[in-house]
Design a protein that fits this description.
By secondary structure, this protein is an alpha/beta fold. It is 28% helix and 21% strand. The chain has one domain (3-194): NAD(P)-binding Rossmann-like Domain (Rossmann fold, 3-Layer(aba) Sandwich). The chain starts with a strand and ends with a strand.
Length: 195
Amino acid sequence: MQHAIIGSGNVGSALARQFARSGIAVGIANTRGPESLAALAREAGDKVRPMSLEDALDADVVILAVPFRAHAAIALAAEQWGGKIVVDAMNTYGVAPEELQGRASTDLVASAFLGAKVVKTFNQLPARLLGAVPGEAGGRRVMFVASNDPAASGAISKLVDDLGFAPVELGRIDEGGALLDKSGPLVLLNLVKLS
């Protein structure tokens, strides 16, 4: 399965470092082009490959690590999203509640990425913890996962586990996934699952 991160800010760079640390290949793209990612790739090693946005859209798993409002333009950049898993690693800081139309932010993402299986994860930790070694206090840092598609949730939970985190599946986006929205009680919560 091919993975690509779109966004090279704090969250995208932290995720790229986590992939590299775990020995899992990942592409990373942004709107400025692959040349702007050369320093990150040198730092992270050969598991992190800078790529164009167009190439990143071809991955099986596309991780959105961009400001929330940017997701709509990314969705329009591909002709179809069927068969792909889109991971919503975004938060809605600075987004007015009216923009969300009373819906979970991930539901809005899913409506933009028609045909994709959307999973919410990687958004609840600050970037410095997201990019740190997941082992802590004799256990592993917890990473919550929510999706309306059980198979996609399982696939991304396996990726979360492979990255060294302890995945905890929360069920559907409109149920447990609501705990991961901006004002949800699990955002910025650093929990450790003991072995």
